[in-house]
From TrEMBL:
Compositional bias ranges of the Basic and acidic residues kind: 383-400
Record's protein name: DUF3300 domain-containing protein
The keyword Signal appears for this protein: yes
Chain intervals for the UniProt region annotation (Disordered): 281-305, 351-400
Record key words, sorted: Signal
Annotated Polar residues bias: 294-305, 351-374
InterPro entries (alphabetical): DUF3300 (IPR021728)
Lineage top rank: taxon: Bacteria
Leader sequence segment: 1-28
Amino acid sequence: MITNPHTPFSKKLLVTVLSGFIAGTPLAYVQAQPNPNAPSAATPSGPILNQSQLGSLVAPVALYPDSLLAQVLIAATYPLEVAEADNWLRNNAQLTGSAREEALKTQPWDNSVKSLIEFPDALNLMGKDLAWTQKLGDAYLAQPKDLFQAVQTLRAKAQGANNLKSGPQQTVSTENQDGQKIIVIQPTNPQVIYVPAYNPYLVYGPWPYPGYYPPPFYPYAPSPGGMFFSFGVGLAVGAALWATPHWGSGSVVINNTTYNNFNHGYNNAANMGPNHYGNQSDWKYNPAHRANVPYSNPALNNRYGNINQSHQAATQAARQQSARNYWNQNASPQEKQAAQQTRENAQKAWSNASAQQKQAVQNTTKAVQNNRSTGAPHVNAAPREEFRGGGEMREGGFRR
């Protein structure tokens, strides 16, 4: 028997929840106590976060190895897919190696999100607080250079507190990039990466930004000698890490050879991401993977919020097809038999429905279609689910 490969909540509900994070009260750890040095109002390009606010956002991951940090930031721009991937990983923890890689081929997520499946601690960190993930991704889209500067400031503070140094798991070095002093974190063994676990309130020395604090949801694992920094189990990198930060420009640079290997290994033909050619290229944001999740920055909503409707429809169709593919490939005979019985019962109920009941279903269907075309609030189409069989049955939270 397979476990539910998808979130138990519908995508519409997840989008609603994520939208609430944007529309509700500002996050306490970003704007707990207004800083007198912060901008007092939104600029024409959208609200600008100062270094204190950006530091509080990025603190939980600023000490990650460079490549992993880069992919965490770009995955955070797709919070709905992060939520799906985190739930998928929890429900399919028994899959490892080639079996997990094969199962991921049908998922339509962005490759940055898929790559985090190989780093469950990082993915779990993001899945625990989607509000933080969403804010982090939006901050990177709106202020990439500023966010990178916040990372470097925090790394310097952790280094000054003797909590960031080289060892068997990682190598910490200083480079000059575009005239700037940059602290670089890389795995000591390029084929094995260790994801650090640390308390962001303590690892940087006295917290430098009173009034703006990191999110309070992390399990602080004790480490030997009472230190504030420890490592999990070493993880084989393989092709899962294919990006690095370019600190001076704020861009993320893709190693195209490694990216293409990952792309072909973790996607089937229907879900293949774009191939990258040449040695390197800059990462480009793809708003289609955002689904309908809004942005916290009005400028981002203006820039990306009105993507082509047919592109959205194609993305949604790919998600639904992936759900069907996973079900067909992994459901047990008993589950398939139960599904068939449910369809037959629904078809029988529809056949026995009165003319009035059928007319009510048709009216509801027309109302839903009209609402979708005009953007009016959604009308509950539950009556149709009671009678229609075949393609309307829901499995694992998705319409089948």
